[in-house]
Specification:
alpha/beta; Amidase signature (AS) enzymes; two-stranded antiparallel ribbon; 15 strands; 48% helix; 11% strand; globular; Amidase domain-containing protein; membrane
Length: 645
C-alpha cells in the first residue's frame, strides 16, 4: 500500500519534506494526492472488504496534520494485512457456502427421485413397455392400446432402475405426469407423431422452471423462463420430457461428473465412463431407461457417449436443427467459428429416424428462422442407389486399439456386401490435429473470462482446469508447457498449448480464412473421389475408465473434425470387444503404444471385454438422411441391439 501511495504521489510531482528530526512528514500536496488516490480506490473497489479498507485509509489521511510517514506506513501495513486475512476468511466462507448450496441441490435431486420411487410403488406398472421398439410403442399409443400415462410410468420406473447403477438423472420433471394426462384426453386425429413418447433431456437443455447448472454451483437456482425451441417443438409433436440427465462440469470433458450431481457411470461397466458431455443421456438410454433423448454436440458430445454406451446418435449440420434456448454457462459458447448444435440420441436407428423426421418441419422453422427450412428427405433416406463410400481407420493422431480397427474394417466389408463401392481415404495430408485445434482456440478466445466468476469459489474438474488453463495461460508460458507435454508424449495437447487461443480480431479473421480453406479442400477431395459417405472410428478405444478419461481429451479429434467441417455425423454400434481384442491391445507387438494417450488406451484395454464398439458415419452438410440410411444398413447387418450388449 505504501509503495502504491509513493508511486501515486510521484505521478503528481509531489515531494517528501525531511524534518531535522529525521522522520518523514507529508507535505500538503502529498497529503491531497493520497486522499484523491484513496478516493479512487474507494470508487473502483467492488468487494466490500477492499472498500472498508479504503474508507479506513481515507479517514487516516484526512486526520493527518503533522504525523510522520511512519505512522501512515504502520496504518497502511496494518490495513493491508488485515484485509488480506479478511479476504482469505471471506473466500473460505464463500467456498463453504457454495459447497453447501451444491450439496443441497444434489440432495434435492435425490429426494425427488426417492419421492417418485415411493409414488411408483403404489401403481401398477407395465414393465414390458420399455422393451418395445419405437415402431411398436408408436403404434400402441396411437391406437389407444396404452395411454401416455402408462408409458410414462413404465419409463419412469425403468429410468430409476438404471439410475441406481449409473447415477444419470439430475432432475425428475414433475410436470410430466400432468402433461401425459392431458395428452390422454386428445382424440386420435389430434395425436402428434411423438404422442406419448417419453423423452430424456441433457441438463443443458432449456426447460421452463428448471435451472441449467452445467455443473457449476454459481448457476444453481436460476430457473429458465421458457423452454428451448427444440423442447417446444418436441412438445408440440406430443413428446413427454420426463427426466434430465447429468453432464461434466462446463461440458468440457468426455467423462461425466461434477460437484453437484456426482459421477455418472457406464451402464455396461460401472468402472467405465459413459462419455461426454451428454454422458447422462448415453447412460440412461444405454440402460433402456429412455428410448429417445436430446443432447448437444460441440466436439463429439452426442457421439462419444453413444459409442461408449452402445446406442445411436446424430450430430446434425449446424443450421439444420438449431439449439436456441439452451442455457450457455460461459461466453465462450457464443463463439461462431465452430457451432454447437442439439442432436438426438436413441436406442436404435429407427427411433433416431422417428424423432428426426418429427421435428424437421414448420414448427421448428417458425421458432428458428435461421434454421434451414429443409424437411426430412424421405427419398434420400429410402433410396437403394449404391453409394460411393470412403473410410479411414486412423486419423494419424492416436492409433485406435485393435477392437476399433476391426469394427471399421467390418463395416467396410458389410457395406461392400450390400453393393456399395468402398475405398480407403487418405487423411494424412490434412493434419487433422491442427484443424481440430480450431475448436480449442475458438473456445479459449475469451481467455477464460467466461469461467472466471463460475470458478472463483468452485472446485474445478481435471478437464475443466486444463481447459481453463489453456485459455488463461500467458503467452510466454505456452512454449514451456508445450515442451513439457511433448516430453510426456502428449503430442496433440502439446500442439494445442503451443498454438494458444485466438487473441485478437485479426487472428479471429485469419482463423476463419484458414478454416474455410480447410473445409473447401476437404470437400473438393471428397467430390473428386465422388464420395457419398465416410466411415471412421468415433474414438480410438471402447469406453475408458472413469479415472483416466480426462487424461485423454486429445482422442476427441476423431469426432471434432466433423464439428470443424460442419458435416452431419452419426454413431451406430456394430460389435463388442472380444477376448482376442483385449489380447491384441495389450500386446506391444500388435499395438505398439507410442504416445501418452495410446499407453492409457492400452492399459484401459484390460477388463474391456464385452463393451460396445461403434463406427462413425459422416456425410456432406444437410445429408442427414443419407447418414441415417447407412447407419440403418450397418445396424441391420450387425444385428446388434443395446439390450444384447
Amino acid at each position: 500500500m505504501l509503495d502504491w501511495v509513493t508511486m501515486t504521489c510521484s505521478q503528481h510531482n509531489c515531494t517528501w519534506n525531511r524534518k531535522l528530526s529525521g522522520s518523514f512528514h507529508l507535505s500538503e500536496d502529498v497529503l491531497q494526492a493520497c486522499i484523491r488516490s484513496t478516493q479512487v480506490l474507494l470508487n473502483i473497489s467492488k468487494m466490500s472488504l477492499w472498500r472498508e479498507a479504503a474508507e479506513i485509509l481515507l479517514r487516516v489521511f484526512n486526520s493527518l496534520n503533522n504525523y510522520s510517514i511512519l505512522h501512515v506506513a504502520i496504518a497502511a501495513a496494518a490495513i493491508l494485512t488485515s484485509t488480506k486475512a479478511g479476504m482469505y476468511v471471506y473466500k473460505r466462507q464463500r467456498r463453504q457456502q457454495l459447497k453447501l448450496k451444491m450439496q443441497a441441490r444434489g440432495q434435492r435431486s435425490k429426494t425427488d427421485i426417492e419421492e417418485l420411487r415411493a409414488e411408483l410403488k403404489t401403481l401398477q406398472i407395465n414393465t414390458a413397455i420399455p422393451t418395445w421398439s419405437i415402431t411398436e410403442l408408436h403404434a400402441a399409443v396411437q391406437a389407444g392400446e396404452v395411454t401416455a400415462t402408462e408409458v410414462l410410468r413404465a419409463y419412469q420406473a425403468k429410468a430409476l432402475e438404471v439410475n441406481d447403477r449409473t447415477n444419470a438423472i439430475t432432475d425428475v420433471i414433475k410436470s410430466a405426469v400432468t402433461r401425459a394426462a392431458q395428452l390422454d384426453q386428445l382424440p386420435p386425429e389430434q395425436r402428434g407423431p411423438l404422442h406419448g413418447i417419453p423423452i430424456s433431456l441433457k441438463e443443458a437443455c432449456g426447460l421452463e422452471g428448471l435451472d441449467c447448472t452445467s455443473g457449476f454451483g454459481e448457476l444453481i437456482d436460476i430457473p429458465l423462463k421458457t423452454d428451448s425451441n427444440l423442447v417446444k417443438v418436441l412438445k408440440s409433436k406430443g413428446a413427454v420430457p420426463f427426466v434430465r440427465t447429468n453432464i461434466p462440469q462446463g461440458m468440457r470433458s468426455f467423462g461425466c461428473s461434477n460437484g453437484i450431481y456426482g459421477v455418472t457411470k457406464n451402464p455396461h461397466n460401472q468402472a467405465r465412463a459413459p462419455g461426454g458431455s451428454s454422458g447422462g443421456e448415453g447412460a440412461i438410454i444405454g440402460g433402456q431407461g429412455s428410448i429417445i433423448g436430446i443432447g448437444s454436440d460441440l466436439g463429439g458430445s452426442v457421439r462419444n457417449p453413444a459409442h461408449f454406451c452402445g446406442i445411436v446418435s446424430l450430430r446434425p449440420t449446424a443450421g439444420r436443427l438449431g439449439n436456441y434456448g439452451n442455457f450457455n454457462a460461459s461466453t465462450s459458447n457464443g463463439q461462431t467459428l465452430v457451432i454447437n448444435t442439439d442432436g438426438p440420441m436413441a436406442r436404435d436407428v429407427a427411433a433416431l429416424v422417428h424423432v428426426t423426421r418429427a421435428v424437421l418441419g414448420p414448427s421448428l422453422w417458425e421458432l428458428e428462422p435461421h434454421v434451414a427450412p429443409i424437411p426430412f428427405n424421405e427419398q434420400m433416406f429410402s433410396s437403394t442407389r449404391p453409394l460411393h463410400i470412403g473410410y479411414y481407420v486412423s486419423d494419424n493422431n492416436t492409433r485406435p486399439v485393435p477392437a476399433v480397427e476391426r469394427a471399421v474394417l467390418w463395416a467396410v466389408s458389410a457395406l461392400r456386401a450390400q453393393g456399395h463401392t468402398v475405398e480407403k481415404f487418405d487423411v494424412k495430408s490434412y493434419n487433422l490435429e491442427a484443424f481440430c485445434n480450431f475448436l480449442f482456440r475458438a473456445l479459449a478466445a475469451d481467455q477464460g473470462q467466461g469461467y472466471d466468476k463460475l470458478l472463483q469459489y468452485d472446485n474445478s474438474s481435471e478437464a475443466m482446469l486444463g481447459f481453463y488453463a489453456f485459455g488463461t495461460m500467458s503467452d510466454w508460458m505456452r512454449p514451456y508447457v508445450a515442451k513439457s507435454l511433448e516430453r510426456d508424449d502428449d503430442n496433440v495437447q502439446s500442439a494445442s498449448f503451443a498454438a494458444g487461443g485466438i487473441r485478437t480480431i485479426a487472428e479471429w479473421f485469419q482463423a476463419n480464412l484458414d478454416l474455410q480453406e480447410f473445409q473447401q479442400k476437404f470437400v473438393a477431395d471428397w467430390k473428386q473421389h465422388k464420395l457419398d459417405i465416410m466411415i471412421s472410428p468415433p474414438w480410438p478405444s471402447p469406453a475408458n475408465k472413469i479415472e483416466t478419461i480426462d487424461k485423454i481429451v486429445a482422442c476427441g479429434t476423431y469426432t471434432a473434425v466433423y464439428n470443424v467441417l460442419n458435416f452431419p455425423a452419426g454413431i451406430v454400434p456394430v460389435t463388442k470387444v472380444t477376448p482376442k481384442d483385449v489380447q491384441n491391445a495389450i500386446d506391444p507387438k500388435v499395438y505398439p503404444a507410442k504416445y501418452k494417450q495410446e499407453k492409457i488406451l492400452q492399459a484401459d484395454a484390460q477388463g474391456s471385454q464385452g463393451l460396445p464398439i461403434a463406427v462413425q458415419v459422416a456425410g456432406l452438410p444437410y445429408t442427414e438422411e443419407r447418414v441415417l440410411r447407412v447407419m440403418a444398413e450397418l445396424e441391420a447387418a450387425a444385428k446388434i441391439k443395446v439390450n444384447q450388449i
